[in-house]
Every structure is written in structure tokens, then in C-alpha cells.
Amino acid sequence: MSFEYEYPRAATAVDCVVYGWGDGQLKVMLIERGNETEEGQWALPGGFLKENETVENAAKRELREETGITYVSLEQLYVFSDPNRDKREHVISIAFIALTKRVTHKVKAGTDAADAQWFPLDDLPSLAFDHDEIIKVARERLKEKARFQPIGFDLLPTEFCLRDLQPLYEAILGRKLEKRNFQKKILGMGILTNTGKKETNVAHRAAELYKFDKKKYRAKLKTGFLFSI
Amino acid sequence: MSFEYEYPRAATAVDCVVYGWGDGQLKVMLIERGNETEEGQWALPGGFLKENETVENAAKRELREETGITYVSLEQLYVFSDPNRDKREHVISIAFIALTKRVTHKVKAGTDAADAQWFPLDDLPSLAFDHDEIIKVARERLKEKARFQPIGFDLLPTEFCLRDLQPLYEAILGRKLEKRNFQKKILGMGILTNTGKKETNVAHRAAELYKFDKKKYRAKLKTGFLFSI
DNA sequence: GCAAAAGTGTTTTGAGTACACCCATGG
DNA sequence: CCATGGGTGTACTCAAAACACTTTTGC
């Protein structure tokens, strides 16, 4: 079967930069390409847009199919359209950033992917296509975004302590933060709820566990509040 | 002539939300569609991606062809990919935001455009496709972007006075600013150069003319400086 | 000289910074 | 009872906000 058009068309693909947080490091999910172009190379999860599908749905679908990852926050990152970015032909890629809480969940290689694995952001293998470029752009975006949007909570478990949050922000922003001021700022925003629970299995005073309160956050937004680190 | 592919492909288009500043108002450039789908409707300048062309170049080309606008700052806005956004078939649109200094320049309708015209942002005609949605997203982006990036200077002539800059920012941000504090903040940033020249033809004390100093701005950025209004 | 808008001084407030300290817990 | 890290108090600094004032210019 084949499809005919009056004018030439570039193929449309989606690629996802999936961030996770584990072992005190930012991580990115990569797949090892199966029986296709650039076989055996590590690459971002992604694939071609199907008929009558939004790019958002394509990204969700590919992520599920190739890595088993499902509930994540997805956001458009950038469009990469250099005619030579894919050796085969002109393929434009709509890149997405995804944030996930579950770095330890079972990752399952699927369709088109020989393997799927988390890699520390600062120790990545060589990548297929222009995916190193995509990751570079994504890294910048993550940093910018973290300054003014509460994305830290998307990378941590639902309940977390401030001792978990601070190193995460330090990793994203690439600089040290002062404990006291970080705590005052975050708690002072009034967008966290104290669960009353405490950390367990630590050899010192247990930290309190908080939850991000999306309702409070949205309400504050409407009154001109700006999250800012 | 026709083009055949193994799988179905959506068509790729680009659309530009071009902002201008004139008569104390934010304006958007629209074209009246010629001999095509939705003929006679007003729409954003844009069109289909050509073979081996980046989306950025396509946007530049369409802008030139349809409106005669050339040197502008262009930036990716968002990808609109609802399968029903175009009645004909699945067309995904890569939308761009463009800023231009020259609201009064000669606008020339060209290929595929019966007419091209500036419209005040708050008094737009009904639009083809999902272009009202695109403009809505662009409006939000402009506001966000203006908070932390010096885009105001892209909308004003190279030389301008603070009296011009302030109402522009008030229009973009949708709120009044205090004269003294605005001036202190902008000049305090150290990214403007006083040209030594003054306003002319005003019936009161002439304001000093400034230039945005891109070099100074870039240098400051490296030292951690953040533009912020 | 008067109207109009440019341009400047100054106080108050609150957030960000830096540093020092007390508290709870496991071993 | 001590090491470890959680949690708190507070002085200092500086930018943002609010408001009042002086200066320049055309008519």
C-alpha cells in the first residue's frame, strides 16, 4: 500500500526527553534502537506521527510503547527540522519534555526498542540523529522552567521532605542553595501541605513529609503569585 | 506530478503571529486569503513547508512572500496538530512569534494573499482555521516572555525614549507601571545607551533617546544578570 | 508665565542573604 | 551522650513601591 500527494511532504516524528530523579542525579530515559535505521544506537524514545493523531498523543503513545512509561507531564519543547538531521530523508521532529516521578519503576523495552534505560544526565552514551542537540536544548529549557514553575514536585514522589527537594533544585539549576533560605522560601509560598508524617529509616532526626498542593498553587496564581526559585 | 510514500503523512505548515506597535497599541499582521481554502477569510501569514526547508526558513519565506516583511525576530511558539483544524485533511502547523519594529512600513500583499494589514490586537476580525486559538497562545507567550526577556526593544525603533517604552510594556503586561520606578529599573539595568539626542516636535520638554545595547546585555547575562519587569 | 511632560530624591517596606543556633533521633 | 542532620531566629542589605518634587520646553 502507498500514499500519494500532490506535493512532497516531510515525515513528522516526535521525540521525548524524559527526565527522572534518582540516586541524587538527574536522569534521562534512552532506548536502544532495534531493527531500524541507526540500529544498536541509543536514542530518545519517539517515532512517527500516525494518521489523525495529535503530536501530543503520538508522544504519549511512543513513550508507552517503547518504555512502558505512562502517567507523565508532557510539554512541547522545540521543533527540529534540519533537512539533514535524518540520513534517510527529511524528517521533522517535534520534541517534548516529560517529567516522571518513578525512576525505579519497571522499564520495559517494547516495539522498536531493543532496550530502555535511565542514564545520568552528565554521563550519556553517544546518541543517534541529532538527539544530543535535542537534549542540550531540553536541559536549557528545564533550567529556565524550574526558575518560575513548580516542576520539582513532578520529579519527586507525591510525599517528600525538603531535604529531597533541595538537592533536586541544586541539580537542575546547577548551583548550591542555602538550606535556611530555601526552606523559608518554599514553605513561605504556601503551596505545600504538611502531611504530618515523617521520614523513616534515617539515623538522625526524621524530616517532615510534605505534599504539593496543586489547588492552592492554582488559586495563588490567579492573584498574581509567581513561583520563583 | 505526484509523490508517493509507504505511510500516510500529515502536511506541515507554518504560521506567523507578527506583532507590531503603533498608535499606542499592540498590532497583529493578518492576510486575506486568496484563491484557496477559506478564501476571503482573514488569517495569519503562513503556508506549507517546502522540500528540504527548515520550518524557520519556511516561516521567513512565507512572511516575505505574503506581507513583504523581512528583518524580524522569529521564535517558535507552539505546534498545533488537531486532525480537524483544517477541513481538507490533517495539517499540522508550526506556529511562530515574530516581532517587528516597522508598523508603518509598506505592507504588500503577495503570493496567495489578497491583502495584508495590521489589526489592533483587541479588535481582530474572525479568522480562518484555528488561528484565533494560535493568537491566544501567542498572547500568553508574549506576556510571559516580556517579563524576563528584553523584547520591548524589538518592537520599537532603534532609538526610542522611555516614554515610548513604558506604554508598550503596559500594553504587553496588561497593567499600569509607575513612571519613576520603571525608569530607575530600566536604566539601572545598564543595557541602554544614551544617544545624546532628544525627541523632536513635542510641545513640552523633549525626552532623551536611548538605544538597546545588545553587547552589554549579553555580557551581563553571562554574569548571572536576569532582565525582569 | 503657564501647561505638559521629562527627569530626580527619598522614605518605607519586604524579600533575599548570611550566619548562628537549638532540637530530635539512632547508635 | 554524641554525631548527624532537621528545623528555627535574626540582623543586614538591597531592590521594589509609593509619592513628592524640580527642570525643561513650546506656545
Characterization of the model:
The structure is a homodimer of 229-residue chains. Chain A has two domains: 11-147, Nucleoside Triphosphate Pyrophosphohydrolase (Alpha-Beta Complex), CATH 3.90.79; 152-222, Orthogonal Bundle (Arc Repressor Mutant, subunit A). In chain A, strands 2, 3, 4, 5, 6, 7 and 8 form a seven-stranded mixed sheet that branches. Chain A is of the alpha+beta class and 229 residues long. Chain A has helices at residues 55-67, 131-148, 152-155, 162-173, 179-188, 214-222; strands at 3-5, 11-22, 25-33, 42-43, 46-48, 73-80, 91-99, 113-120, 159-160, 192-198, 208-212. Chain A is built from six helices and eleven strands. The longest helix of chain A is centred in the middle third of the chain and has 18 residues, at 131-148. Chain A is elongated. In chain A, 29% of the residues lie in helices and 30% in strands. The A-B interface holds A 1-12, 48-49, 51-56, 76, 78-79, 81-83, 90, 92, 94, 148 and B 1-12, 48-49, 51-56, 76, 78-79, 81-83, 90, 92, 94, 148. Strand 1 of chain A pairs antiparallel with strand 1 of chain B, so a sheet runs across the interface. The structure holds a DNA duplex (27 and 27 nucleotides).
Strands, helices and their partners?
2 copies of one chain form a homodimer.
Chain A: E1 3-5, E2 11-22, E3 25-33, E4 42-43, E5 46-48, H1 55-67, E6 73-80, E7 91-99, E8 113-120, H2 131-148, H3 152-155, E9 159-160, H4 162-173, H5 179-188, E10 192-198, E11 208-212, H6 214-222
Parallel strand pairs in A: 2-7
Antiparallel strand pairs in A: 2-3, 2-5, 3-4, 3-8, 6-7, 9-11, 10-11
Chain A binds a DNA duplex (27 and 27 nucleotides) through helix 5.
